[in-house]
Amino acid sequence: MREEELEVALKVVIVGNGGVGKSSMIQRYCKGTFTRDYKKTIGVDFLERQIEVDGEDVRLMLWDTAGQEEFDAITKAYYRGAQACVLAFSTTDRDSFEAAHSWKLKVENECGEIPTVIVQNKIDLMDHSVVNPEEAELLARALGCKLIRASVKEDVNVAAVFRHLAARCLQEMREPREDYYPSPNGHHPVTISAFNPSHTSKNQNGTIVLRPNKHKKRKNVLKSACRLF
Ligand SMILES: Nc1nc2c(ncn2[C@@H]2O[C@H](COP(=O)(O)OP(=O)(O)OP(=O)(O)O)[C@@H](O)[C@H]2O)c(=O)[nH]1
To answer: Where, subcellularly, is it found (predicted)?
Structure first.
């Protein structure tokens, strides 16, 4: 298998206060549907979608986590092993905007620094906005993240969020290429996946599963994973 045939699987967590549109975003992106009903997420949910980025197949595994605090203890266990994060707040919910810092910290505590996009959702309701544009930009700058304004309802910029994250992750994976050690028999790994949390292993199909250690920076995780081969 040649290097350019690597398949990449990325675990992405979607976080943010209850009602900001996390489940809707994943449904929109993976199923192309939108519903006006609000059914709060209990614990976590999961959907996936395959896309092509820079000629590479990328499998995005999207973890929808409950925004309500009552589920905090359950959801944070599911952050582990995530390689990218969508941090969402709602245009019409001031609390959700102000909670962004603490969501960022919660994810950082479990995953270290991972590529994160801040999504200001519900921009179709801009007339009722409680967050001014400069504030949103300041927040993104303070957290060192890209800000994307989106409307899941109108399907504006939803795909852009996931495409951006996938591209960032691919870029990070390519960075340590000079440290990439081929296996003793000269074969390269078939698949790189970050689906499972903690440490690195190879499954029966020859798929390489990256299992980042808690608090470990992703780049280092990738480096050590590559060194195994
Ligand atoms: N107007 C508008 N409504 C939206 C948009 N996205 C989601 N909604 C609505 O917002 C409500 C909450 O959406 P959910 O996707 O359930 O929110 P959530 O963040 O998953 O909530 P929890 O499961 O409690 O964490 C639903 O009634 C959606 O229809 C949007 O872009 N515009």
So the answer is: Cell membrane; Cytoplasmic vesicle membrane; Cytoplasmic vesicle, Autophagosome; Cytoplasmic vesicle, Phagosome membrane
